[in-house]
Design a protein that fits this description.
Layout (H helix, E strand, L loop, with lengths): L22 H13 L4 H6 L5 H4 L3 E2 L7 E2 L16 H35 L11 H10 L9 H17 L13 H9 L7 H11 L8 H31 L5 E5 L9 E6 L3 H11 L2 H9 L5 E6 H11 L3 E3 L13 E6 L8 H7 L4 E3 L10 E2 L7 H17 L12 E5 L3 H9 L7 H8 L5 E5 L11 H12 L2 E6 L1 H8 L13 H10 L4 E5 L4 H14 L11 E5 L5 H13 L2 E4 L10 H12 L5 E3 L3 H18 L13 H10 L1
Parallel strand pairs: 4-5, 4-7, 5-6, 7-8, 8-9, 11-12, 11-14, 12-13, 14-15, 15-16
Antiparallel strand pairs: 1-2, 3-10
């Protein structure tokens, strides 16, 4: 069994009910304690967060330090080199943006590499599945498609999108999708991204000791780098995934640990890139492997997702999902997982010990992510099933020789997910009149107050899922339509908020719209990299008209209430730079009462961007977001409810002619 929490010291044992609202995870925490196994929740309880680091009042960027400043007296002391608190904080913030942006842009570049190899026929196990999406993406960045073959369009699209990463001058291709007034603001402040590699390199250079020492100038490059992620690397990852694997449309999906089956070989895929999971789907349907599983005494193979790779495929294929980030260790405690295979991002090193305690193979597959103590089976897109078949064989062997007691929580929730930008347009207008106009009209007439993106991780520093669920309940109750990506989506699915039946929890206006359209009040869009879908949707709202000329005019707000990663900071900054008020929970890596704090939380909005916000509790976050939405409605002249008029067919035809 795993080692005790802290050798030679009393460990602090917090009631399980303080850790999570997820019944399945709570049950597994209790079982893990009885088994002597340590999970992230107990580690968090016994790891005091550094208060100086939490306020970003320390600097370790050179060997003259580390330098520690006093957040209670931020201007009473400077670093050895003379760096002020604002320089130190902005450098630390910059490096979080750079690391987070690198994670998503590297993911996007990997998808683009795969796209290139598919086009040239070097990778034969994948193909272009959505030619309609291929053409629409090409047209959106000015590529002429008439009279061209699929391969010709794909080659030209690849050539253009490659500039997203490698270009050293000019503007990234997807800048063409940005509303003109928003783009004018970016150009005014010289933050239109060139290429992701250049922007990340520039930002890392600036944050080196003795280089950029003005927080406003560092923030500009933070914005430029973050935008290279949101409108570059992440957007490329989403669009290429859709082209290769299919654009999502709504599907009902089973969620929670009850999706595991004691009499099946259970295989979990955890990570972020869809390539591995797509090949796993092929492997678990291989007749020889199914026969091998049955020969080992199993009824079959049961493939299950976790975290964002799970979100990628449940949106496209309806594959069941076992849980979000904070449940990745807990699910192993069931004893029912016969293999967990991972690729990149959000993979806890603690998984190794937990997997070992229950004799579960933990298998890494990506050259970027090896873990000491885990098995490694390299995944190669040119022969993907060599890896994924191997994973299935290891899982079958473990099932045949199971020694761990199996205890599966019998909790399953059904959620409806897969609301891509394209499907939302179809859902609102049909095949021939697809449009965001009904959404805009219902915001203008007051049925829908505004739109909120509630996204991101879970964090053991707060009660798992609690803030996500309570915040969304408060928002929809106040007629705010919610869009979701990432681990937040799983929290809401478990809480039953992602089905059309959840409309009864919404305010009267939003409820009416949801019931008319037949949609949930909470729309799941995909993995955390798919935040770019929210940017595309918001841009379409501007293009349709009636809600201002820029993204900063829209009655929208964003939030990551339980964030934990550097990716989240980068995502937040690209939404702020795009014009969206963005609230984070848990903690914020800035000292209040400083010039840098004021710059992020006030001055950016005065320049025409969005701004940052921070609060911990769900009710407080909701108040901030709703107040901002109301402020934007007032600025648009929409603060007064409009009279609802019953319209006959002549009225409707007149509206169509005007449109």
């Amino acid at each position: 069994m795993a080692e005790k929490l802290i050798k030679g010291k009393e460990k602090k044992e917090i009631p399980v009910s303080d850790f999570t609202t997820c019944d399945s995870t709570a049950k597994m925490i209790t079982k893990a304690r009885l088994d002597g196994v340590e999970l992230q929740f107990d580690r968090a309880a016994n790891m005091k967060a550094c208060p100086i680091g939490a306020d970003s009042a320390c600097c370790k960027h050179c060997a003259m330090g580390p330098c520690r400043l006093n957040a209670k007296d931020p201007y009473g002391k400077v670093g050895v080199c003379g760096a002020t608190i604002d320089t130190i904080m902005s450098r630390n913030f910059a490096r979080m943006v750079a690391a987070g942006g690198a994670a998503h842009t590297d993911h996007g570049m990997n998808m683009l590499d795969l796209f290139r190899e598919v086009i040239h026929g070097k990778v034969k196990d994948y193909k272009i599945k959505d030619t309609v999406k291929l053409e629409s993406v090409a047209k959106s960045i000015g590529i002429e498609t008439d009279g061209k073959t699929v391969k010709e369009i794909a080659l030209e699209l690849y050539s253009e999108l490659e500039r997203t990463y490698t270009q050293v001058e000019g503007e990234i291709p997807f800048a063409k999708r940005v509303p003109e007034k928003t783009l004018e603001t970016w150009r005014k402040y010289d933050i239109v991204p060139r290429g992701a590699m250049r922007e990340i390199m520039d930002l890392m250079h600036r944050s080196h000791m003795g280089v950029d020492q003005h927080y406003e100038n560092i923030t500009k490059q933070c914005s430029r780098t973050a935008l290279a992620d949101g409108w570059g690397g992440s957007m490329v990852a989403t669009e290429i995934s859709d082209i290769l694997f299919g654009t999502p449309s709504p599907v009902a999906i089973e969620t929670d640990m009850g999706v595991l089956k004691e009499d099946h070989v259970n295989i979990i895929v955890h990570g972020h890139e869809p390539n591995l999971f797509e090949s796993m789907i092929e492997s678990v349907h291989e007749s020889t492997l199914i026969d091998a599983a049955k020969a080992a005494g199993a009824k079959g193979l049961n493939l299950v997702g976790m975290c964002c790779s799970g979100l990628e495929v449940f949106n496209r294929h309806g594959v069941p999902h076992a849980g979000n980030f904070s449940s990745t260790e807990a699910v192993l405690v069931t004893g029912a997982v016969d293999a967990m295979t991972v690729d990149v991002q959000c993979i806890q090193q603690g998984l190794v010990k937990v997997a070992d305690c229950y004799d579960t193979p933990l298998i890494t597959t990506n050259t970027r992510c090896h873990i000491e103590g885990a098995q490694h089976v390299q995944f190669d897109e040119q022969d993907p099933k060599d890896c994924t078949d191997n994973v299935v064989i290891k899982a079958i062997s473990r099932f045949k020789n199971r020694t761990a007691k199996v205890d599966i929580p019998q909790n399953i929730s059904i959620g409806v997910h897969g609301f891509s930008h394209e499907y939302i347009s179809y859902m609102l207008g049909g095949s021939f009149r697809g449009s965001y106009k009904p959404l805009n009209d219902n915001i203008i007439n007051g049925r829908i107050r505004g739109v909120a993106g509630v996204v991101g991780c879970t964090n053991p520093r707060v009660k798992q899922d609690s803030v996500h669920v309570e915040l969304v309940k408060e928002l929809i109750k106040n007629d705010v339509l919610v869009l979701q990506t990432g681990c937040s989506q799983v929290a809401l699915a478990k809480a039953g908020l992602t089905t059309p039946e959840a409309a009864h929890l919404a305010g009267p206006g939003l409820k009416e719209v949801c019931e008319t359209v037949g949609m949930p009040p909470v729309l799941g869009l995909g993995a955390c990299v798919d935040n770019s879908r929210i940017l595309v949707a918001a841009s379409e709202m501007v293009r349709v008209g009636g809600l201002g000329d820029s993204l900063a005019d829209l009655p929208v707000a964003g939030c990551a209430p339980e964030y934990m990663s550097e990716k989240a900071i980068c995502i937040g900054q690209y939404f702020v730079a795009s014009g969206v008020y963005t609230v984070f929970g848990v903690t914020f890596p800035i000292t209040e009462g400083t010039k840098f704090h004021k710059h992020l939380f006030e001055e950016l909005e005065e320049q025409g961007f969005g701004k940052w916000g921070f609060a911990v509790g769900a009710q407080e976050i909701a108040k901030l977001m709703i107040a901002h939405i109301d402020k934007k409605r007032q600025a648009l002249g929409l603060d007064k409810a409009r009279e609802r008029v019953l319209m006959d067919m002549a009225d409707r035809r007149a509206m169509d002619d005007a449109a």
